[in-house]
Structures are given as C-alpha cells and as structure tokens.
DUF4102 domain-containing protein (Rhizobium straminoryzae), 397 residues
Amino acid sequence: MALTDTALKALKPTGRPTKHSDGGGLHVLVTPQGSKLWRLSYRFEGKQQTMALGAYPAVSLANARREREGVKALLAKGVNPAQHAKLERIAKQASNAVTFKVVAEEYLRKIAKEGKADATQSKKAWLLDLAMGDIGSRPIRDITAAEILVPLRRIEAKGNYETARRVRSTVGQIFRYAIATARTDNDPTFGLKGALTAPTVSHRAAVTDKKAFGGLLRAIWAYEGMPETRMALQLMVLLYPRPGELRQAQWSEIDFEKAIWTLPASRMKMRREHRKPLSQPALAILEELRSLTGHGKFLFPAVTLPMRTMSENTMNSALRRMGFTQQEATSHGFRASASSLLNESGKWSPDAIEAELAHMGADEVRKAYHRALYWEERVKMADWWAEETNIWRETTG
C-alpha cells in the first residue's frame, strides 16, 4: 500500500528497525531512535542493491518518488544507479573545487606566460582583488550576476564608476576563460552591462595652443628640480611617448649611432615593437642623461631604488610645482599636444603621425605597413618638431 504524508508522520519507533513500503522498491526504514530513512531497493545485473535517499521529512515523499523514477530510467538504459550517484558526487566535489579564485589565478599565470606587460598583470590582479572577497571562494559555475553586482555597487558607492566598469570587464574575462576551458557555461557579467553608472569621460589635459605650449616649454627647460625629471619632461616634449614607455626605457634600447629608440613589444600598449627616430636635440638630452644614469639599466631609475624606475607621479608633480594645474597640463597630454599641432601644420600625413604615436586601427596589417612606409617621413617630422618646439619656446612669450 502506498504511503501518505499522514501515514509517514504517524510512524512510531519500536524496539527494532521497521520497513514501510511505498512500492517499486521505495520504502522508509524507521530506526529504534525514531529516524525515518528513505531506502530504494533494486536489482542490477541480477544482484540486489539498496540506495540511501536521505531522511524524511528533509526528503519529502514526492522527492523520494522522483528519485525512484530516476533510478528506473537509469536501469532501463543499463546504468548502475549507485555508480551514477557516485560519479555525480565526484563531479559536484570537483565543481566546488573550481572556485572563481582558482580560475582567476590560472588566468593571471596564462597572461604572464603570454608576455603581457607587468603593469597590465598588476592592474588585472588589483581589479580582480576588488571582487575576490565576495566571489573568490564560490564555485565559478554557481556564481550569479546578483553576486557580482555586490562588489560593483560597493565600488560605485565610493564614486569610482570607471573602476566598477573595469572590474566588471575583468571579471568577465575570467568567466570567458572558464567557458573556454570547460569550467562553466555562462558569463553572468554580460547581463550587467546596463546596470552600472556610466563614468563621466574626462580627457587628459593637453596644451594645443602654440603660445600656451611655448610657455609650458619655457617652464620645463627652466625647471630647477632634479635634472633627471627635467630631462624626462624634455623628452616627453620631443618624443611624445606614453609616460610609462619613457619611465621604463632602458639604455639597451637606445642606438646613438643610428638615432633610434626601439621599444620592445612587451612594453607597448598594442604588443608590437615600436621604433622612434631621435632628433639631434633628443640625442643631446640623452647624452647628458647618460652621464647621470648610464651606468645602470634604466634611463630614469628611482632615486633610492636603482633597480626600479621613476615614479609615475614624478613628472606630473613637477608640472604642478611649475604652476600648471591638472586641468592645464599632464605628462600624458604631450601626446595630444604633438598630435594636434603636427596635424595642424599640414606638413605631415595623418598616417605618419599615427604611426609615430604607435596607434593601431582596426586594419593592423595596413598600419604595420605604414610604419615602414613612413619611416623616412617620420625622421624628417622628428627633426621638424624639435626645431618648431625650440622656436615656440623662444618666440611665443
């Protein structure tokens, strides 16, 4: 006779274990201590076997019956239900072991092997750490969009909207890597794209008026602070690289005879080697700098730790001491100044200017071709730019 919830609740323990059948091998075993344990008996390959399904009422009558039907379906396929249950437990344990932190650390090791810049690796690790406390220990397969939104909202509450956006993007990279390596099937960050507050875009300050630019140049050439800082700013004017590219420059990259600075792919934003022509004024500054730091590895070593480079704040701090606010001038702004004034001159092709700035568009093959094609023009442009900046420095007061 089939069991009912009323009958199950009324079952009382006796001095020995008693069985109460629901049919089809499903029964409840009532222990002398009063526990009501679901058991399912079945035959597989001629042998009688019994599975434990849990205790009543934690496992309801309806759930126990569903388990029975599942076992019947497995038997019909020739699958041993006990072995199937064991494999499911192992898979669950393995899934629980694959946490977000485990996959994230593996991803960081991967990009390190691929030669990503140290700064890129550190930035990604920092961004991931902002979410690690909330989702790091969770099985990556089980993490939901709502869980990821918790650290993102906390970051937004501090007004760091751009950081929140970057954390979402970087966490998404981990999920997509987990999908590619068969650890999960879904990227829950995709659904969060419209949930975050869009940051206000603020362009880096740059001087693009010739007269104002001349005033900035006079202040730099007259700077009385550390000579290495003055020379770093002078080279930013003449060469307009990304500030990090200059700060991390090494003497082995400078060819004085050929007047070329070769930046390795590992330090370039687009992961491609980049060559810059050196004008005579730039070479003169480098010669002066070599007398100060040429005995070491870096052009601009840290004052107290020669094996490290100049701080990223050094040049901007010098500009502040000269009286230029953050809204007026930044070290990165020299790139925009050069781009604007070079294009305004009308003397140089836009592609040559873009090649000198190491910008890469969608058609990377075309851009790589242009880098070679416009080398001669870029050499002339470097000399012209050095002459023009000198004229603006001396005549636009």
The chain is about 50% helix and 10% strand.
